[in-house]
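User: Could you go from structure to sequence for me? I need the amino acid at each position, not a summary. Structure tokens:
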């Protein structure tokens, strides 16, 4: 039996322990993978970390958490528990630069700790993330394993799409990404403030920008154009959640830092193919609408609902029928965690599908879209007034 890996979590929030609107939760995937020990959980909110630990200890894999210690300061956790690897699940504004306190990846790299880092790499502009990417690339050359959590890269449906596209002369000619988020149940105050997350293109639609790149290649960033509807007044969305004080959850967020309600972007890939993204925060209740469509010569593939009831609808060259393939049983979160753990065990990073450098390119694309919408005349408040 291989030696048990020592794993620690930085962040006791939803991405690492579950909750929120989706099927994520790295702890449960590690429980399935097994042969790991959770040596520490670091979170500024130690009460939350304690709560998470209590729940896990009473679960079916409680033994994995027998020695887990809680820390407010992740640096103390690294010193004391000496993990082999950490899962970093923090608000994007809390990490991903060289600035003290946000230099978490730099600190882990200096300590020789392998990292699984949730997307996006940061909320900071890509120029501030680039020095981190350089440092991590050097560390990776020396054997540090780093994986960024763009889990759709591990989806079987996406692998099938790539296989089908590869057989069509000229490959993907157009990528049409559509992502409409259901906003009424999003109760995280941080989420509603683009200064804390980078905004929903940088934080959320980043998954589809990354998929577009994974399928159709790099983007010529100089071609990115975008328009958007900025925050506007809370009343102009009918059902923004309320905080504990009974006020709209974004009541104290200045209008210019509220999440854009809709964004439409276009760009060209370096292959010559064209891409587009339409993103909205406009649906009610919990279920999102997410769909990514690829057109090639004779080919149309629709990846529908990849977070949940994942299906591919394929119309092949030379035909008119649409074949539907069901991937709803696939768990790309499990596959990405397995791949990371296996890479840490073997020291071989070749199966990792998203390096930090690659994730930075996706971050550059999302920031290019965000910046394009902020150009004068490209963003409008609901009142119809131009933003400066
Ligand atoms: N891949 C996916 O499908 C997926 C799903 C959910 C979240 N995410 C990403 O994961 C990241 C984290 O999201 P989340 O939902 O877990 O957030 P969250 O708000 O639920 O949890 C973040 C935790 O980090 C803690 N924290 C903040 N600063 C800290 C610091 N300096 N040191 C220690 N702890 C600190 C907070 O107290 C909080 O408990 C985000 O980037 C998000 O986009 C990805």
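Assistant: Here is the amino acid at each position, in order:
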């Amino acid at each position: 039996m291989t030696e048990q890996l020592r794993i620690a979590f930085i962040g006791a929030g939803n991405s690492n322990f579950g909750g929120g609107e989706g099927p994520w939760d790295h702890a449960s995937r590690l429980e399935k993978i097994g042969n790991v020990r959770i040596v520490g959980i670091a979170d500024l909110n130690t009460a939350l970390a304690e709560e998470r630990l209590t729940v896990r200890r009473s679960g079916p894999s409680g033994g994995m958490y027998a020695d887990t210690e809680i820390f407010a300061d992740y640096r103390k956790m690294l010193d004391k528990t000496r993990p082999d690897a950490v899962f970093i699940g923090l608000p994007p504004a809390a990490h991903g630069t060289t600035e003290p306190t946000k230099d978490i990846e730099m600190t882990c790299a200096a300590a020789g700790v392998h990292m699984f880092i949730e997307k996006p790499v940061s909320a900071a502009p890509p120029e501030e993330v680039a020095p981190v990417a350089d440092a991590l690339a050097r560390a990776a050359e020396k054997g540090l394993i780093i994986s960024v959590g763009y889990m759709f890269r591990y989806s079987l449906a996406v692998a099938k799409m790539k296989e089908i596209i590869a057989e069509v002369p000229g490959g993907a000619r157009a990528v049409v990404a559509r992502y409409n988020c259901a906003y009424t149940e999003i109760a995280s105050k941080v989420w509603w403030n683009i200064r804390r997350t980078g905004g929903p293109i940088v934080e959320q639609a980043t998954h589809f920008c990354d998929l577009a790149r994974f399928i159709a290649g790099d983007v010529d960033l100089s071609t990115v154009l975008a328009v958007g509807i900025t925050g506007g007044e809370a009343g102009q969305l009918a059902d923004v959640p309320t905080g504990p004080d009974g006020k709209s959850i974004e009541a104290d967020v200045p209008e210019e830092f509220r999440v854009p309600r809709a964004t439409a972007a276009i760009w060209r890939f370096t292959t010559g193919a064209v891409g587009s993204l339409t993103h909205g925060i406009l649906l009610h209740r919990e279920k999102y609408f997410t769909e990514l469509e690829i057109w090639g010569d004779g080919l149309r593939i629709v990846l529908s609902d990849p977070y949940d009831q994942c299906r591919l609808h394929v119309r092949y060259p030379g035909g008119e029928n649409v074949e539907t393939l069901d991937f709803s049983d696939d768990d790309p979160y499990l596959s990405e965690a397995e791949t990371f753990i296996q890479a840490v065990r073997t020291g071989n990073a070749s199966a990792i599908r998203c390096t930090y450098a690659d994730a930075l390119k996706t971050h550059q694309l999302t920031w290019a879209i965000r910046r394009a919408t902020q150009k004068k005349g490209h963003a409008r408040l609901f009142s119809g007034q131009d933003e400066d």
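One structural detail worth keeping in mind: The pocket of nicotinamide-adenine-dinucleotide is lined by residues 10-16, 20, 22, 24, 42-45, 48, 74, 89-92, 94, 118-120, 149, 151, 188, 190, 203 (CB under 6 Å).
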